[in-house]
Amino acid sequence: MNMWISAAIALGVGLVIGSIASRVVRNQMAKSKIEPLRESASAIAGLVFSGCIIAGLLVALGFVSPDDLDRLPSDAIGFLPKVISAAIVAIGGNIAATFAQTATAKAVAGSGPASRLAPMIVRLAILAASMILAAAQLGVDTTVINISVAALLFGIAATLALVIGLGGRQVASEVAAGRVWRRSLEPGDEIRASGVAGVDIDGVVVEIHPTAIEVEGADATLFVPNSKLLETVVERKRRAEGPPPAPLRSKS
Questions:
Q1: End of a domain among 183, 204, 223?
Q2: Residue 250 lies in a domain
Q3: Core-most of 57, 197, 215, 241, by most CB within 10 Å?
Q4: What is the pLDDT along the chain (252 residues), one digit of tens a residue?
Q5: For the chain, what is the largest distance between any 2 Cα atoms, rounded to a whole number of angstroms?
Q6: CA 42, CA 25: separation in Å to the nearest integer?
Q7: Alpha-carbon distance 24 to 28, whole Å?
Q8: CA distance linking residue 161 with residue 158, whole number of Å
C-alpha cells in the first residue's frame, strides 16, 4: 500500500476515534454530580479529541518518514525548554492583564462607556503582547505579527482615548450645570418641572450633587441630571425662613 494512503488512513482513523471519544467523554462528564467536572466537560472533550488527532499524525508520520519519527523524542526534549519559557511568559501576561484590568476598572469607574470598555481593552492589549513574546520564545518570526499588533494597539489606544474623552465631557457638563444650580437652588426648595427626560418633577430638593439633583417626591426619590434640568422651565418655591409668624388676636 502507498505510504501516503496509509498516512491518510491513519489520520482519518484518528479523526473518527477522536470525534467519538470526545463525544462520549462530554456526555459522561455532563451527567456527573460534581459541578467542576460538568463545567469542564467541553474543555476535556476537546483535549481528548486533540490527543487522538496527534496520535493519528504520529502514526501517519511513521508511514511517511520513519526516520523523522525516530528523531521526534529527542527533538521534543530539545524543544521543551522553549515551550516552558513560552508558558511562563503567557501565564505571567495573563496575571499582569488581570491586575491591570482591575486597576483600570477602579480608575475609570463612573466615567460612562469607558468604565465598561477600558478594562477589557487593557486586558486584551496585555494578553496580545504576552502572546507575541511567547511566540518569540518558540522561535516564531513575529515581524509581521508585531506590525499588525502595533497597528491594532494604536487603534485601541485612539478608541480608548476617544471613549474616555467623551465620557469625561459628559461628566464635565453635568458638573458645570451643577455649579449653576448651586447658585439658584438650596436644599428644602420645592421645585416643579415638566418633561425632564420624559419625567415630571414635583418635590423637595434634598441635595445638589456634582452631577445630579436629589429630589424627594411624593412616591420616590429622584436623581435628576443637572444638565437635563437646565433644558426646561423650573418652578421654584423657596422654603420659609424661620418659624411662621404668630397669628394676630383681637383684644376683647
A1: 183
A2: no
A3: 215
A4: 577 788 888 888 888 998 998 899 888 888 888 777 777 788 788 888 888 888 888 888 787 777 776 776 776 777 778 878 888 888 888 888 888 888 877 776 655 555 677 778 778 888 888 888 777 777 766 676 667 667 666 766 666 666 555 555 666 677 777 777 877 788 888 888 887 767 788 888 888 887 788 888 878 888 888 777 777 778 888 766 555 445 445 444
A5: 133
A6: 9
A7: 6
A8: 5
Judge whether 150 and 133 are in contact, CB under 8 Å: no
| Listed residue (221, 223, 222, 230) closest to 183, CA to CA | 230
- Sheet arrangement for strand 190-196: 221-225, 212-217, 199-208, 190-196, 234-237
Do 132 and 146 form a contact (C-beta atoms < 8 A)?
yes
Quote the cell numbers at residue 28.
Answer: 459522561
Count of other CB atoms within 10 angstroms of residue 5: 10
Indicate if the alpha-carbon torsion angle 222, 225, 226, 228 is positive or negative.
Answer: negative
Structural domain includes residue 201: yes
Residues 6+ apart with CB under 8 A from 191: 185, 201, 202, 203, 204, 205, 215, 234, 235, 236, 237
Give residue for cell 448651586. 182
* Domain annotation covers residue 155: yes
